[in-house]
Structure formats: structure tokens, C-alpha cells
Amino acid sequence: MATVILIACICFLFGAVIGSFLAVCSFRIPMGKYEPTRPGVKQLDKPVSLTKPARSFCPECEHPLEWWQLIPIVSWCALRGRCAHCGAPVSFRYVIIELLTASLAVLCFLRLGPTPEALALFIFMCLLVVITFIDLDYMIIPDVITYPATFAGLMIGLVNYFTRQPLGGLLGFPFVRSPFDSLMGLLMGPGMLLSVWWLYFKIRKREGLGLGDVKLLAMVGATFGAECAWFTIFAGSLTGAFIGLATLLIRRDALSTYIPFGPYLALGTTLFLFQAHEMLFALLGQPSTITWWIRGIS
Ligand SMILES: [Zn+2]
């Protein structure tokens, strides 16, 4: 048990460092390429890329950060959320992304143990984190993430098929086992999402989904199969509708504002991969509770 806690702590630290990098990714990837849809998203005059400039900098005064200001979570707290050079407030979202990524790293380890699957799942989770935060600011899911990830999903199916043994291929659960699984997920996911798109269009007479959402689902389906894609749409739509209705109750004008769907889809996938539904069934005492309940009324 002590070893498990120790490794979980190492995973947390590792995840926090990666999270710090993901925050930079979500800031730099869309910068200058797209127009932000959320007010207050910082825009720079100079072009930036993931590698240029190599050092992280304050978006306000563009002063490069010292090494100790790069320590995730701690540095933000030590500086009380302000830039050490110009005193401009530093967004709390950096801390959120770092904590989120750190927690996901721990979850991957606890769920799958110290295995290649856990590492691969964590990498996939990282992509979802970047997608979520870009979608929140820009209502865009960049192709530069979804295309390679879909390709990687197909490759996992192929490699798993050719390395298959009685105990499974190179990457076991929750990854696709064959190119067929991968293709099914790739087709089922976007196919179903297009029906949701059509339904929304019929009801609301306008587009409720972007093509980016469809591509996100393609990458989920190709990597984890049709069941995961199906669950992602179901759980994503459900949480999206729930949060949407809640916002509507608070703000009446929210009906005319667009809500990015990517974060909900990412949440749906995460719930499936960590088998939240099975945990729920276990808590409810298995589906038998429901059948007992139905028998009770007949
Ligand atoms: Zn500054």
C-alpha cells in the first residue's frame, strides 16, 4: 500500500509538470490562428508557436519567466497569482489545468497500474485537456490534434491485431483490439453525432455542433471503439443539456449564446474510460435493483 501511495504521489508531480506544458499548449496552439469567441482571451501581437519562444513568458509584459516561476501550482500560490515582473494577474486556469492533469495521471495509474496502457491513456487524456481549454476559448478543436490522434488510434488497432496473443495485444483494455474495432468506432461515432447535429438543426433551426466535435469523436472512436464513442455522445449530450438548462435558469439570455460541446464530449469519454457507469451500477447494487423495482410494480 505504501508503494502505491508513493507511486501515486510521483504520478501527481509528473502530471502537474505535464499540465504546466499543456497550459502552454492550449495558450499557444490557437494563438494568432483563430479568433477567440470568449471575451477576455489574451491576444499577442507577435506570432508564437509551441517551440518559439522556448522560454515561457508573461502574456502581459512578455517578460520571460525565471526557473522557479515554472514550478506548477506552487509558483502561482507563491506569487499570489501575479506576475513577478509587472504584477499583472496570472489566470487561475493554469492552476486548474495543472491540478486536473495531475489528478488524471493519478487516476490512470490507480485504474490500470504501472502499465503501458496507463501511460498511453494518460497521453490521450492530455490531448483531451488541451482540446477542452482551446474549445472553451475559441470554440475550435484544432485539426493538428484530432487528425494525428485518429491516425494513432487506427495504428493501435493495427499493431494490437498483429501482436495479438491469448492475453491481448500490445495495448490491452481500454484500447481497440483490431483495425475493425477502430474503423467501427471511427464510423459509428461521427455517424451518430451527425444524427444529433441533424436533430438539433431540426429543433433549433441552426447548427448546434461544429465539425470539430465530429473530428473529436472520430479520434475517440478510432482509439477506443464504437462503445466508447456511443457512450461519449450519450454522456456528453446529457451533461451538456443539464449544464445548459442550469445556465438558462440563471441567465435568460443564455439561449442565444453558443456553448462549446467539446468539453462535454471530453468529459463523456473520460467517464467511460474510468468506467464511471460501472461504478454507479456497483453503488446502486448492480442492475438487479432496477429489475427488482420493475417487478415490484407489475
Ligand atoms: Zn508580467
Short description:
By secondary structure, the chain is mainly alpha-helical. It has 2 domains: 1-140, no CATH class; 141-298, no CATH class. It contains 11 helices and no strands.
Quantity of strands, as a count: 0
- Bound ligands: zinc ion
Indicate the mean pLDDT: 87
Poorly predicted runs are none
Task: Tell me the β content.
Answer: under 5%
- How would a textbook summarize the main sheet? none
Look at the helices and sheets and give the structural class: mainly alpha
Give the domain tally. Answer: 2
**Amount of helix:** 55-70%
With helices defined by DSSP (H or I, 4 residues minimum), what is the helix count? 11
Oligomer: single chain
Q: What is the CA–CA distance across the termini?
A: 48 Å
Q: Rg from C-alpha positions?
A: 21 Å
Order of helices and strands: HHHHHHHHHHH
Shape designation: globular
Give a structural overview.
The chain has 298 residues and is mainly alpha-helical. 64% of the residues lie in helices and 0% in strands. The protein folds into two domains: 1-140, no CATH class; 141-298, no CATH class. The structure holds zinc ion. Residues 58, 60-61, 63, 83, 85-86, 88 line the site of zinc ion.
